[in-house]
Design brief:
Length: 169
């Protein structure tokens, strides 16, 4: 008996194979920074970028504390990963859920260790509310009167120092 694929089945099959649509469980074996972890599942490690949030960079103010907060919550823990997509660096962008059903992405925003990343989760009223509350109550990095968002920090980091001339043609 031959298996015949209909014309609409081929694109659907390709879409399902390329889209990380299925949740899985694994053990957090590494915390790269506040919003990136590594999960071991079925003998394979996967880099996970937490969806909808952006933590300070490692060398940025509060970067170490954000990484520590993520490590305290997740390192060595069994987590469930609910994928959204892959990013341009090949990381799986996902919601990370602890065994007790705690959403790590949301808890980091609630505790004030990251920003709601509006660019990538524009319609997330939960993250919006959690960030507003953290700002209002001055939790985590919001104790700083003017914290620099990581996307601004990354742009500033790539600019040449003030007073450096561009090379002549």
């Amino acid at each position: 008996m031959r298996l015949r694929l209909l014309p609409l089945q081929v694109p659907l099959l390709l879409f399902l194979c390329s889209t990380p649509a299925f949740s899985f469980t694994g053990l957090v074996v590494s915390v790269k920074d506040g919003d990136t972890i590594e999960v071991l599942s079925n003998g394979q490690t996967t880099k996970i970028r937490l969806h909808g949030i952006d933590c300070p960079e490692k060398r940025q103010a509060y970067g170490y504390r954000a990484k520590l907060a993520t490590a305290v919550l997740t390192f060595g823990q069994a987590v469930t990963i609910h994928p959204h997509e892959k990013d341009k660096y090949g990381r799986l962008v996902a919601e990370v859920i602890l065994a007790d059903e705690t959403n790590v992405n949301q808890l980091l925003v609630k505790d004030g260790w990251c920003w709601w990343y509006r660019t990538y989760a524009p319609a997330d009223p939960v993250l919006e509310t959690l960030e507003s509350e953290a700002r209002r109550t001055r939790r985590g990095l919001w104790i700083d009167p003017n914290p620099v968002p990581p996307w601004v920090y990354r742009k500033l980091k790539h600019k040449p120092p003030v007073g450096v001339l561009e090379p002549l043609p």
